[in-house]
Amino acid sequence: MENNTDHTDSNNFSPLSVQDVDVDFLPIVYEIIRSVERDFHDNSAKARESQDCSQKVLELQKKFDVARSQIKRLPGIDYNKQDQLKQFEILRTQLRLKRELLQKYRNMCSFETSFK
After folding, report:
1. Full-model pTM
2. Which GO terms describe its cellular component (predicted)?
3. What is the 3-state secondary structure (H, E, C) of 46-105?
4. What is the pLDDT of residues 87-98, one digit of tens each?
């Protein structure tokens, strides 16, 4: 998946594909958990680690914000389930009709070539 953390891109309203949405949160979550689990005996090390952990939480929050803005740009995201199902049925019917037309055309072509 594309690692897109450019915040100017979130203002662009061009549609995205699902593969373009950056939802790779696990590495940051892992780093945060690892930071929290560490046991430091030195207070300065604890403070430094706490600051690093806070920075990672902010980074995760920014990643969530970018993902939200990208998800809003996905085509069809503004349709409810009923509208999506209706559109799916329309497309399925169109596909069936086109397949039937292709089959008729193939049959007609094979019929004509058999008489030549």
Report:
1. 0.57
2. mediator complex
3. HHHHHHHHHHHHHHHHHHHHHHHHHHHCCCCCCCCHHHHHHHHHHHHHHHHHHHHHHHHH
4. 999 999 999 999
